[in-house]
Specification:
The chain is an alpha+beta fold and about 400 residues long. The chain is about 25% helix and about 25% strand. The protein has helices at about 105-115, 135-145, 170-185, 200-215, 225-235, 280-295, 370-385, 390, and strands at about 5-15, 20, 25-30, 35-40, 45-50, 55-60, 65, 190-200, 245, 250, 260, 260-265, 265-270, 270-275, 310-315, 335, 340-345, 350-365.
Length: about 400
């Protein structure tokens, strides 16, 4: 799991106690503060679960046992070796002799018949608790009086049936994500600069060559490869953005491993696409699609998330118009993409409707000055609006 990981949460069992499992069959999901991974069966046999879902476990801890070549046994609620609990011994009920029925006077019996009141259910006020004529009359008068109206029930809560709140412990991944985001804001001097890009040229290229691209590569060409190549282009022109602080040292990177943020059910992950300066559009698209699929399926490896020099996040996938992304430490900057909307813009002195996207660059002002940040974002904008710049490197 990596030297920095010492524990995790067994988030989900894919099998039940007593199931027959096959070698390499996925058994459970383990969530750590960096990744979610699966544990597979090491042999065929019948499995005995040692820990329950949601339990925190140490790396190296035994969470289940597989009895090889065993036959399935009926699933049990508790551990399979638990002996049945002894039945509770119930003492025979002692029967007390019945109490003699109270003697009632003729007057009491007559009034009881007239009013329908059962004297046996009344507490008598007479000698030795005997029910009197007055007791029966009083009970009849009480029964004849209307019952007081019950108070009106309070209106039902607006949220509908069920609990008003539910609570669950944060997953290690979510806890680590929270720690890193807070640390980034507390330790870095973050500032965001904005620009907008006309997406007409990129949309035209995708429309013109999409069919051929799919036929040759087996997947569609998205917008992200254009931005990855544009970012690499801008990093080469403004190299200070491709640097980071380590203590009192400024480290300049000379490679272009770009992180692409992926939203999963477990939280945000940023798999890194290696050597983007040497990859073509198809290779970048395939690498992004593969990394995103493995992240969402819980098959991402720790090495896939380490070593990036710059991050791109696309809030436009969910409809975001504008945002200020947070830098992924120890990187010095992050690019935020947003929704593409048709807007009126001035083109050559005329108003035209163009597909526009707002771009946001959040950067660490300890490393990157405003002039360099703005220049970097303009370089990205120019490469998107005129992709031919990427071919001739200007």
């Amino acid at each position: 799991m990596g030297e920095s990981i010492s524990s995790g949460v067994l988030a989900k069992w894919h099998v039940k106690n007593g199931d027959v499992v096959k070698r390499d069959q996925p058994l459970f999901e383990l969530e750590t503060d960096k990744i979610t991974s699966e544990g597979n069966a090491e042999a065929d046999g019948v499995i005995t679960l040692n820990v329950s879902e949601g339990a925190e476990v140490k790396i190296g801890q035994v969470v289940a046992l597989i009895e090889a070549a065993a036959k399935a046994a009926p699933a049990a609620e508790g551990p399979p070796d638990a002996s049945p609990a002894p039945k509770a011994q119930v003492a025979p009920e002692s029967k007390a002799p019945p109490s003699p029925a109270p003697v009632q006077s003729p007057a009491v019996r007559r009034i009881a018949e007239e009013t329908g009141v059962n004297p046996a259910g009344l507490a008598g006020s007479g000698k030795a608790g005997r029910v009197t004529k007055g007791d029966v009359i009083a009970a009849a008068e009480t029964a004849a009086r209307p019952a007081p109206a019950a108070p009106a029930a309070p209106p039902a809560p607006a949220q509908g049936p069920g609990e008003r709140q539910t609570r669950r412990k944060l997953t290690p991944l979510r806890q680590k994500l929270a720690e890193r985001l807070v640390a980034a804001q507390n330790s870095a001097a973050l500032l965001t600069t904005f620009n907008e890009a006309d997406m007409s040229a990129v949309i035209a290229i995708r429309s013109k060559y999409q069919e051929d691209f799919v036929r040759r590569n087996g997947l569609k060409l998205g917008f992200m490869p254009f931005f990855v190549k544009a970012v690499v282009h801008a990093l080469k022109d403004v190299p200070v953005v491709n640097s980071q602080i380590e203590g009192d040292t400024l480290v300049q990177n000379h490679y272009y491993d770009i992180g692409v943020a992926v939203s999963t059910e477990k939280g945000l992950m940023v798999p890194v696409i290696r050597g983007c300066d040497g990859l073509g559009m198809a290779a970048i698209e395939k690498a992004i699609a593969d990394a995103a699929a493995r992240a969402r399926e819980g098959r991402i490896a720790l090495a896939d998330l380490e070593g990036g020099v710059f991050t791109i996040t696309n809030g436009g996938t969910f409809g975001s118009l504008l945002s200020t992304p947070i830098v992924n430490p120890p990187q010095s900057a992050i690019l935020g993409m947003h929704a593409i909307n048709e807007r009126p813009v001035a083109v050559g002195g005329q108003v035209a409707i163009r597909p526009m996207m707002y771009l946001a660059l959040t950067y660490d002002h300890r490393i990157v000055d405003g002039r360099e940040a703005v220049t970097f974002l303009v370089k990205v904008k120019q490469a998107i609006e005129d992709p031919s710049r990427l071919l001739i490197g200007i």
